[in-house]
Amino acid sequence: QVQLVESGGGLVQPGGSLRLSCAASGFSFSWYGMNWYRQAPGKQREWVAYINPPGGGTNYADSVKGRFTISRDNAKNTVYLQMNNLKPEDTAVYYCNGPSNSWGQGTQVTVSS
User: Fold this and answer.
1) Of 38, 62, 91, 93, which is least surrounded by CB within 10 A?
2) Euclidean distance between the first and the last CA atom of the chain, given in angstroms as a whole number
3) CA-to-CA separations, 93 to 23, 28, 65, 89, 110, in angstroms, rounded
4) What is the Cα–Cα distance from 74 to 45, expressed in whole angstroms?
Protein backbone atom coordinates (compact mmCIF):
# COMPACT_ATOMS: atom_id res chain seq x y z
CA GLN A 1 0.00 0.00 0.00
CA VAL A 2 1.00 3.64 -0.28
CA GLN A 3 3.46 4.68 2.39
CA LEU A 4 4.93 8.14 2.93
CA VAL A 5 7.60 8.81 5.56
CA GLU A 6 8.70 12.37 6.32
CA SER A 7 11.96 13.34 7.98
CA GLY A 8 14.22 16.33 8.48
CA GLY A 9 12.22 18.47 10.88
CA GLY A 10 13.66 20.10 13.95
CA LEU A 11 14.26 23.30 15.88
CA VAL A 12 15.82 26.19 13.98
CA GLN A 13 16.35 29.87 14.66
CA PRO A 14 14.55 32.54 12.60
CA GLY A 15 16.38 33.04 9.33
CA GLY A 16 17.67 29.49 9.33
CA SER A 17 17.12 26.63 6.91
CA LEU A 18 15.89 23.05 6.94
CA ARG A 19 15.39 20.42 4.27
CA LEU A 20 12.50 18.02 4.66
CA SER A 21 12.37 14.66 2.89
CA CYS A 22 9.46 12.37 2.11
CA ALA A 23 10.27 8.80 1.14
CA ALA A 24 7.49 7.15 -0.86
CA SER A 25 6.70 3.50 -1.51
CA GLY A 26 3.83 1.31 -2.64
CA PHE A 27 3.03 3.15 -5.88
CA SER A 28 4.65 4.30 -9.12
CA PHE A 29 6.15 7.47 -7.70
CA SER A 30 7.22 9.01 -11.00
CA TRP A 31 3.63 9.00 -12.27
CA TYR A 32 2.17 11.26 -9.58
CA GLY A 33 2.29 14.86 -8.47
CA MET A 34 3.21 15.36 -4.84
CA ASN A 35 2.32 17.99 -2.26
CA TRP A 36 3.58 19.35 1.01
CA TYR A 37 1.08 20.60 3.57
CA ARG A 38 1.50 21.98 7.08
CA GLN A 39 -0.62 22.33 10.19
CA ALA A 40 0.16 24.83 12.91
CA PRO A 41 -1.24 24.42 16.45
CA GLY A 42 -4.90 25.36 16.55
CA LYS A 43 -5.10 25.92 12.80
CA GLN A 44 -6.36 23.99 9.81
CA ARG A 45 -3.99 22.07 7.62
CA GLU A 46 -2.83 24.26 4.72
CA TRP A 47 -1.28 23.48 1.38
CA VAL A 48 2.34 24.60 0.96
CA ALA A 49 3.72 23.38 -2.36
CA TYR A 50 3.16 21.03 -5.32
CA ILE A 51 5.45 19.38 -7.84
CA ASN A 52 4.33 17.62 -11.02
CA PRO A 53 5.43 14.08 -11.89
CA PRO A 54 8.42 14.91 -14.10
CA GLY A 55 9.48 17.53 -11.57
CA GLY A 56 9.58 20.50 -13.89
CA GLY A 57 6.41 22.21 -12.73
CA THR A 58 5.91 23.61 -9.24
CA ASN A 59 3.43 25.79 -7.36
CA TYR A 60 3.70 27.47 -3.96
CA ALA A 61 1.48 29.11 -1.40
CA ASP A 62 2.01 32.85 -1.34
CA SER A 63 3.23 32.63 2.25
CA VAL A 64 6.30 30.56 1.26
CA LYS A 65 6.97 31.72 -2.30
CA GLY A 66 10.58 32.76 -2.73
CA ARG A 67 11.69 31.01 0.48
CA PHE A 68 10.73 27.34 -0.03
CA THR A 69 11.65 25.05 -2.92
CA ILE A 70 10.01 21.71 -3.65
CA SER A 71 11.94 19.12 -5.64
CA ARG A 72 11.91 15.39 -6.30
CA ASP A 73 14.25 12.55 -7.14
CA ASN A 74 12.25 9.94 -9.02
CA ALA A 75 15.15 7.48 -8.87
CA LYS A 76 14.99 7.62 -5.06
CA ASN A 77 11.17 7.89 -4.79
CA THR A 78 11.68 10.96 -2.64
CA VAL A 79 10.25 14.47 -2.58
CA TYR A 80 12.01 17.31 -0.77
CA LEU A 81 11.12 20.69 0.68
CA GLN A 82 14.03 23.10 1.07
CA MET A 83 13.02 25.82 3.50
CA ASN A 84 15.13 28.97 3.75
CA ASN A 85 14.74 32.21 5.71
CA LEU A 86 12.41 30.46 8.13
CA LYS A 87 10.05 32.53 10.24
CA PRO A 88 8.29 31.75 13.53
CA GLU A 89 5.00 31.54 11.62
CA ASP A 90 6.43 28.58 9.67
CA THR A 91 6.24 26.52 12.87
CA ALA A 92 4.00 23.54 12.11
CA VAL A 93 3.85 19.83 11.49
CA TYR A 94 4.73 19.29 7.84
CA TYR A 95 3.05 16.51 5.89
CA CYS A 96 3.72 14.85 2.57
CA ASN A 97 0.64 14.13 0.43
CA GLY A 98 0.41 11.70 -2.45
CA PRO A 99 -2.04 9.68 -4.56
CA SER A 100 -5.37 8.47 -3.22
CA ASN A 101 -5.22 11.20 -0.56
CA SER A 102 -2.35 9.44 1.19
CA TRP A 103 -0.48 11.15 4.03
CA GLY A 104 2.66 10.62 6.02
CA GLN A 105 2.92 10.87 9.79
CA GLY A 106 4.35 14.37 9.64
CA THR A 107 7.56 15.99 10.85
CA GLN A 108 7.67 18.86 13.34
CA VAL A 109 9.32 22.13 12.36
CA THR A 110 9.80 24.71 15.10
CA VAL A 111 11.22 28.14 14.34
CA SER A 112 12.19 29.94 17.51
CA SER A 113 15.05 31.87 19.06
Assistant:
1) 62
2) 40
3) 16, 26, 18, 12, 8
4) 26
Cα 80 to Cα 83: distance, rounded to the nearest angstrom: 10
Residue 56 has a pLDDT of 77
Q: Residue 56 carries which side chain, given as an amino acid letter?
A: G
Instruction: Work out the average pLDDT over 88-95.
Output: 98
pLDDT at residue 72 greater than cutoff 80: yes
Instruction: Give buried/exposed letters for 78-109 (b at 16+ CB in 10 A, else e).
Output: bbbbebeebeeebbbbbbbbbbeebebebbeb
Check pLDDT > 80 for residue 76: yes
d(CA 97, CA 24): 10
The pLDDT tens digits of the residues spanning 7-32 come to: 999 999 999 999 999 999 999 999 99
